[in-house]
Amino acid sequence: MLRIRHEVNGGPTALVAEEADRPKPGAGEVLIRTKAVGVTLPTVRKVRDAREPISLAGEVAGEITALGEGVAAFGIGDRVTGLCFTDAYAEFAVLNAAMTSRIPDGASEVEAVALVRSGLVARGAYDAAHVKPGESVLVTAAASAVGTLALQYAKADGAGRVVAAVSSADKADFLRNLGADEVVLYEDADWGAPYDAILDGVGGDLLGPAVRALATGGRLVAFSSGGGTVEAYELLVRSASMIGFQVRATAVGKPELYDRWLRELWQLHEAGTLRTAVHEEIPLAEATRAHTLIEQRRNLGKVVLVPSLRPKALCPWSPSGPGHRYESRDFASSRTS
After folding, report:
1. Which of 28, 100, 149, 331 has its CA 20 to 30 A from that of 271?
2. Taking Cα atoms as reference points, which of 308, 316, 320, 319 lies closest to residue 284?
3. In what order do the strands lie in the sheet with 325-327?
4. What pTM was estimated for this model as a whole?
5. pLDDT tens digits, 143-161
6. HSE of 121, CA atoms in CB hemisphere, 13 A
7. Using CA atoms, how far apart are residues 140 and 222, in angstroms rounded to an integer?
8. What are phi and psi of 103, to 5 degrees?
9. Which whole-number Å values give the CA distances from 319 to 69, 114, 249, 288, in the listed order?
């Protein structure tokens, strides 16, 4: 099978495509033939900053081809999605059955990776902000997969003024079509402050401006992997609060709530209340290009790797079994897995 591996050899970090053996599911796991892989910002950042090789994680969706010992909730042929923490960028991936969910009939695998994890993060961050009807909400990284869904959640829940914050003005029309009342740029002086709630998916240097944009009694929910620090005084003078949110903590600590959010997510999607935004479906072998899109903040919605797609720029190759390797941006294949 084709697998993308992160490599560091004393120079620039690289995503290398190679032939590898198909993995086997262990106890409590399922093996899927991957149809779609969602590229996440945390993985992009880890690859960019890594000094040693890391595992490539991501949302994956596909069809179950094998069951590990003790798995009774799923069967061969079921279409499922979940978060894979090791070797997600591959034609076959292993998922923990406890963190795997079925894809409803009528929904595609690409829709699943654009909706499920990003939607759960958006829902959880929004709930953590305790937004009351009519309150104002600002969403940073608003053109990301999580951001687009958070905007829609806020509008559907009755927030008064919903504003999208982004890095570039050319994203404005896209975001207004998803329900944003206004669009502001990170470079703007005050982001159109004040806001009752801010959902921050960027972190880092943007945390300071985000806190200063809070209204008295405002809530900042940080759910990004970008880190950063906040001056306690800035919260004090506004009687404001900062809240952290991680969807994995909810899945582990409050599984009943996690399952309810998941059911509601698909219901809202089926009703048309939540629309998924997919920037591009990219061949798995072009993972480097997918990472570059996100790193340069050029994506409008989710970036999805699709193993069945073949790169446009073909170049011949001759596989020599597991361990055969090539640069992912140059790879092309006509084989079937």
Report:
1. 100
2. 308
3. 2-7, 14-19, 325-327
4. 0.87
5. 999 999 999 999 999 999 9
6. 28
7. 10
8. -95, 125
9. 32, 32, 41, 21
